[in-house]
Design a protein that fits this description.
Distance between the termini: 51 Å
GO molecular function: protein-glutamate methylesterase activity
Structural class: alpha/beta
Radius of gyration: 20 Å
EC number: 3.1.1.61, 3.5.1.44
CATH topology of the largest domain: Rossmann fold
CATH superfamily of the largest domain: Methylesterase CheB, C-terminal domain
Helix content: 25-40%
Main location: cytoplasm
Oligomer: single chain
Order of helices and strands: EHEHEHEHEHHEHEHEEEEHEHEHEH
Keywords: Chemotaxis, Cytoplasm, Hydrolase, Phosphoprotein
Number of domains: 2
Family: Belongs to the CheB family.
Largest sheet: 7 strands, parallel
Length: 350
């Protein structure tokens, strides 16, 4: 049996310790070959030309050239899969979200203290994300950072409070996929509940970023708050989001229970609660992401009478979660990303 050749990785980080730890962690996997390291983007540029790696791990904050500026140039001139290595801080969160907007496939967060031990704790995740990045689809960036939605006053649809509920789940590639969907929805769209795999420190910055790009009001959900049309709700960092029924309306339930499918927040947790409490009033969509989280929950939504959509393979950065849902029979329609928002609205009107 012929095995696929290992994916070739170039590690770019200004810290010699991080370069050493990442090299050792990655090289421990027979499916990965670390072909080189670079201490800054200018050295990295030369090594990319010489070594032709399949994947880059890239530190966000580096000397001589900012990691974002380097990434923007790279995605314009030589698009390739990049996994960002970012710090678990608010500033790191904002920078990482910009990096994902510029075309980075995914990110791993390095802890503020005891970096070597912290990275080792994430060893399996880091290796999985690098190998997934090697198989991902990368497009040259059109730099979407400055584009804000045109708010069209004529797009009012007139939904009632409990008419429809839209539930969306995503992982790798999802920060930009969710932005694409939300910036197309009008200010009076049905309520949207979202789960995106993100560490706790990133959720507030992500909610603010989506809010800037959407005519809807996007916010971190607080426990017990009413779910209203024209609003989109994300779980607060590192917590699960469920919906509960309260008479004629739904409310958010934010809880700190154990991870599901190794994730917290988990898409399955959200989708199951939507299946139980909204049934046929709901519409579910599963977008780009690694793994299987959300597939079973989407099947439960479909069995409860909800319409279900999945992002297609061609427009997904990683067709793990949507592919799993399709194979499970959980999906009514498979659509390219740019058609998902209009289809959600058409189903909501039906």
């Amino acid at each position: 049996m012929s095995l696929a050749p290992p994916c070739r990785v170039l590690v770019v980080d200004d810290s010699a310790l991080v370069r050493q730890v990442l090299t050792e962690l990655l090289a421990a996997d027979p499916g990965i070959e670390v072909v080189g390291t670079a201490a800054d983007p200018l050295l990295a540029r030369e090594k990319i030309k010489r070594l032709n790696p399949d994947v880059l791990t890239l530190d966000v904050e580096m000397p001589r050239m900012d990691g974002l500026a380097f990434l923007e140039n790279l995605m314009r001139l030589h698009p390739m899969p990049v996994v960002m290595v970012s710090s678990l801080t608010e500033r790191g969160a904002d920078t990482t979200l910009q990096a994902l907007a510029l075309g980075a496939v995914d990110f791993v967060a390095k802890p503020k203290l005891d970096i070597a031990r912290g990275l080792e704790a994430y060893a399996d995740e880091i290796r999985a994300k690098v190998k997934m990045a090697a198989r991902s689809r990368v497009r040259a960036s059109a730099s979407p950072l400055r584009r804000l939605p045109v708010q069209n006053a004529s797009s009012h649809i007139g939904f009632r409070t409990t008419d429809r509920l839209i539930a969306i789940g995503a992982s790798a590639g999802g920060t930009e996929a969710l932005r694409t969907v939300l910036e197309t929805l009008p200010a009076d769209a049905p309520a949207v509940v979202l789960t995106q795999h993100l560490p706790a420190a990133f959720s507030a910055a992500f909610a603010e970023r989506l809010d800037r790009h959407s005519a809807m009001s996007v916010r971190e959900a607080s426990d017990g708050e009413a779910i209203l049309p024209g609003h989109a709700y994300l779980p607060a960092g590192g917590k699960h989001l469920r919906i509960i029924r309260d008479g004629a309306r739904w409310r958010c339930r934010v809880d700190d229970t154990a991870p599901v499918n190794l994730h917290k927040p988990a898409v399955d947790v959200l989708f199951r609660s939507v299946a139980q409490n909204a049934g046929a009033n709901a519409i579910g969509a599963i977008l780009t992401g690694m793994g299987e989280d959300g597939a079973r929950g989407l099947l439960e939504m479909k069995q409860a009478g909800a319409a279900t959509l999945a992002q297609d393979e061609a427009t997904s950065v990683v067709w793990g979660m949507p592919g799993s849902a399709v194979r499970l029979g959980a999906v009514d329609e498979v659509l390219p990303l740019e058609r998902i928002a209009e289809r959600l609205l058409a189903l909501a009107r039906a």
